[in-house]
Amino acid sequence: MIQIKNLHKSYKMGSSSLHVLKGIDFAVEKGELVAIMGSSGSGKSTLLNILGMLDVLDEGSYTLDDVLIKDLDETKAAKYRNKFLGFVFQSFNLINYKTAAENVSLPLYYQGVGRKERQEQAIKYLTMVGLADWSTHLPSELSGGQKQRVAIARAMASRPKVLLADEPTGALDTKTSYEVMDLIQKINQEGNTILVVTHEEDIAKMCKRIVKLKDGVIVEDIKVNQVLAADYV
C-alpha cells in the first residue's frame, strides 16, 4: 500500500540546512495498523506530512497504492489526497459553523457527490461512530471525544485507501483516548490501512506494529501483540 525508499528531506534554515529525514526505507501493507513514534524533532511529523502529500520529498521515492507520488502541484496533490487519504488531527479541525453531518459530508462535496447522497453517507458514517443522534449539533455542542469521532467519520466518508491519524488522542483524557482507539481498531479490523502518529506508549501498543524514529532515521520497527482498547473502555 505504501512504499518509501531512500527518503531524504531537508529544510533551509537561513544560510544553513536542517537534514530532517535521512534515507528512510519504510513499507506498509494493506490492512496494517502502524504506530509511528519519536520525540520532538525526530522527523515523524515531516514523514507524516510527506505521506499525506502536504510536503514533498527531496530525494527518494514514495509509492501509494501502486501510484508513484511525484511532481505534485497543489491541484494534483489535492486530487490525490481526496482519492487516497483520510486525515484525523489532534485538534479535530472541524468547521465550527457546520453541523456534525455537514462536517462529515465535506470530503464528498469536493469529490462532486450530490447533496442527497452526501447527506445519506454522512448519517451512515456518524452511525458507524455512534453519533447519529448528534448529526445536527455544532462542534461547540460536542465533547472532545465526540469531536474526534466526527473527525474520524469525516475521514472515512471518502473511503480512503489510508487513514493518517496525527496524535488523534493527544487532546483527550485517558478513557476517551481508549474509546477513540477502540473505534480506530474496529475500522482497521474491517481491512482499512491506518497510520497513527503518537508519543504515548499505551496508544502505540494498541496498534499492530511500532516504528520508532530518532534523528531522522528509523531505529526500531517491530510487530507487537496488540492491546485491545475495548478491554479498557
Describe the protein in words:
- The protein is α/β, with parallel strands linked by helices.
- It has a single domain (2-231), classed as Rossmann fold.
- The chain has helices at 44-51, 74-84, 100-110, 115-128, 144-157, 174-189, 201-204; strands spanning 2-13, 16-28, 33-37, 59-64, 67-68, 85-89, 162-166, 193-197, 209-214, 217-223.
- The strands form 2 sheets. It has a 6-stranded mixed beta sheet with strand order 6-7-8-3-9-10, with helices on both faces. A 4-stranded antiparallel beta sheet has the order 2-1-4-5, with helices on one face.
- The longest helix is centred in the last third of the chain and has 16 residues, at 174-189.
- It is globular.
- The chain starts with a strand and ends in a 10-residue tail after the last strand.
Give the tags:
7 helices; alpha/beta; single chain; four-stranded antiparallel β-sheet; 33% helix; six-stranded mixed β-sheet; 233 residues; Rossmann fold
Number of separate structural domains: 1
Q: Figure out the total of helices.
A: 7
CATH architecture grouping: 3-Layer(aba) Sandwich
* Shape designation: globular
How would you name the CATH homologous superfamily?
A: P-loop containing nucleotide triphosphate hydrolases
Arithmetic mean of pLDDT: 93
CATH-defined topology: Rossmann fold
Total strand count, please?
A: 10
Structural class: alpha/beta
